[in-house]
Amino acid sequence: MTLPLEGIKVIDFTGVQAGPACTQMLAWFGADVLKIELPGKGDVTRSQLRDIPGKDGLYFTMLNSNKRSLELNTKTPEGKEILTKLLKGADIFVENFAPGSLERMGFGWDQIQAINPRLIYGTIKGFPEDSPYSDLKTYEDIAQCAGGAASTTGLIEGSPLMSAAALGDSNTGMHLLIGLLAALLHREKTGKGQRVYMSMQDAVLNLVRVKIRDQQRLERTGELTEYPQYPHKPFGDTVPRGENASGSGVPGWMMKCKNWKTDPNDYVYVIFQPWGWENVCNVIGKPEWITDPNFATPDARIPHLFDVYNAMEAWTIDKDKHEVVEILRKLEIPCGPVLTTKEILHDESLRANGSIVPVEHKDRGLYYTVGCPPKFSAFTPEIKASPLLGEHNAEVLTELGYSAADIAALKEKGVI
């Protein structure tokens, strides 16, 4: 099976989550991804949140599959020489160092462009280059705050809340991936490499565009009719937290199911489409609402949405979430259960379609990881184990022309 990026060489000079998520996807698509790691230590996630003492943590294994690992101290003259040789034969170089770090090391964009004009240089930073916050060290949660996600997430009267989804990290990696693939196509047409700069703030902001939409609507009209406080509470000058409102213009809310007191995830989310209103009224035992002027049309229902939500919850409260879904799906009422991480991990259908994938690791044994999200008709990426630290030292250096004696000397000096 031919993979689309076979023959593409990637130098992965990233750590933690955003960069590795991007380069892992490149590896899944067939690229030869070489992860550069600090000798004796490696990516910090190898030792973070370990579930097996002395073994690579799942944080690392689930973000670095299908790669090769080279230990390399790039602060030494020999290390710089090796990296330079690698860059001359590479197609893509990806880094997420602090601003200015690689320039001081001798591998900034201008310097790398001189080494290999065809090279595509992918860089991840916390903020855009001209941002007043560009010097801030950025983490997932900071990116969610700076990108506008946190201020619109949570209860109306509560504090801003973080999303458990990696909006700042893995999401940034996926945005960079899109940019790198576009740059590869551009190089096919022009023969030239380019720099692809991806900030975590921009990546979060792109996913918060509907809130930017709402900010402009709020400034024009002074209110947002689909938000839960309308029409009972006044709006301020910024988009408020939306609680469990759908945010799509079509009403939706989270409903308790019968085990909610003992199971914090026995909930179902229901969307109330305009064209399915008659079915909604019938199933919740409110057939009179079909013609009632206060409920008959979407606009009429807006001031009474919590009456609708309460009536639906009065119906769901004596059924578990799966029972609710089985009934509503037959009536074509959009709904979905709140699936837990345990349910997802052990879901037979997700395992069957490659969304959850078993991986045999040479050191820690069997573990499960998330498979390739897009499913292709022409190929299926094979998810392989992440590399041990320095597993490919000899292999990579031999490819560069180093002898066994040279490799031993480099190891003695702490270069690898």
From TrEMBL:
Top-level class of the enzyme under EC nomenclature: transferase
Q: Kindly give the Gene3D superfamilies that the UniProt entry links to this protein.
A: Crotonobetainyl-coa:carnitine coa-transferase, domain 1, formyl-coa transferase, domain 3
Q: Where is the active site?
A: 169 (nucleophile)
According to UniProt, the reaction catalysed is:
formyl-CoA + oxalate = oxalyl-CoA + formate
Q: In which pathway does it act?
A: Metabolic intermediate degradation; oxalate degradation; CO(2) and formate from oxalate: step 1/2
A Pfam family for this UniProt protein?
A: CoA_transf_3
Matching entries from InterPro entries are given as: CoA-transferase_III_domain (IPR050483), CoA-Trfase_fam_III (IPR003673), CoA-Trfase_III_dom3_sf (IPR044855), CoA-Trfase_III_dom_1_sf (IPR023606), Formyl_CoA_transfer (IPR017659)
What UniProt keywords are attached to this protein's entry? Answer: Transferase
Annotated residues for binding of CoA: 72-75, 96-98, 104, 137-140
Which Gene Ontology biological process is one annotated for this entry? oxalate catabolic process
- Known EC number(s)? 2.8.3.16
Q: Which GO terms describe its molecular function?
A: formyl-CoA transferase activity
Complex formation: Homodimer.
Q: Give the UniProt family note.
A: Belongs to the CoA-transferase III family. Frc subfamily.
Provide the function of this protein.
Involved in the catabolism of oxalate and in the adapatation to low pH via the induction of the oxalate-dependent acid tolerance response (ATR). Catalyzes the transfer of the CoA moiety from formyl-CoA to oxalate.
The entry's protein name is Formyl-CoA:oxalate CoA-transferase
- The protein's organism comes out as Acetobacter peroxydans
Protein's gene: frc
